[in-house]
Amino acid sequence: MDGKSTGTGRGGAALATAGGENRAALIGYLPGGFPRVPGLIGALRGMIDGGVEIVEIGLP
Question: Is-above-0.85 flag for pTM?
């Protein structure tokens, strides 16, 4: 590998875009269902509105 693999899908596209602009991508993380599903959706929207390019949702 060349160390520049970006994966596939939208996440890979976001990483490729950031790399092409010589910067890091902003990646946010939330645990799944936290604090509750409606709250999670609101938090996700807030993260995206705040400029997060990739959201990772972890399952406990």
Answer: no
